[in-house]
Amino acid sequence: MDQLDNLARRFRDAIEATPRSQLPITMQSFPHGACGDATLLLGHFLKLQGLGTFDYVLGEKGDHTHAWIQHGDIIIDITADQFTEIDQAVIVAANSVWHEQFTSSVLHEADFMIYDNYTQATLGAAYHSVIRQLEDILPPVLED
Known about the structure:
The protein has about 140 residues and is an alpha+beta fold. The chain is about 35% helix and about 20% strand. It has one domain (about 1-140). It is built from 4 helices and 5 strands; from the N terminus they run ααββββαβα. The longest helix has 18 residues, at about 115-135.
């Protein structure tokens, strides 16, 4: 769990350090409105770290939707603080009480590479920009 928390925090820091012009429009107000694409990037990253595949989970609560990744009971959310009731930038937890408030369903694997060519190219470019921010922190074998 500590390794997941560390990697998730570093990945979020890298997204925040990435010039907005190198991110898709959906992520330019990160973390606001960026949960879907950020989740796909994070899932791909963790998979390349050898941590297996994660599920893309979509939750609904009232008029709000939110996405995060999950493996079994372990939830990883790097955009929850877009909601006013959350002050944690990164949540890595088993059975998160806040996430349980959502009606949620697993949609598919959390990896942008499962999408069409356009999405792969768009999010792939963003992914590589984020990874460049990590080069001083993690070894360059993260490139795919």
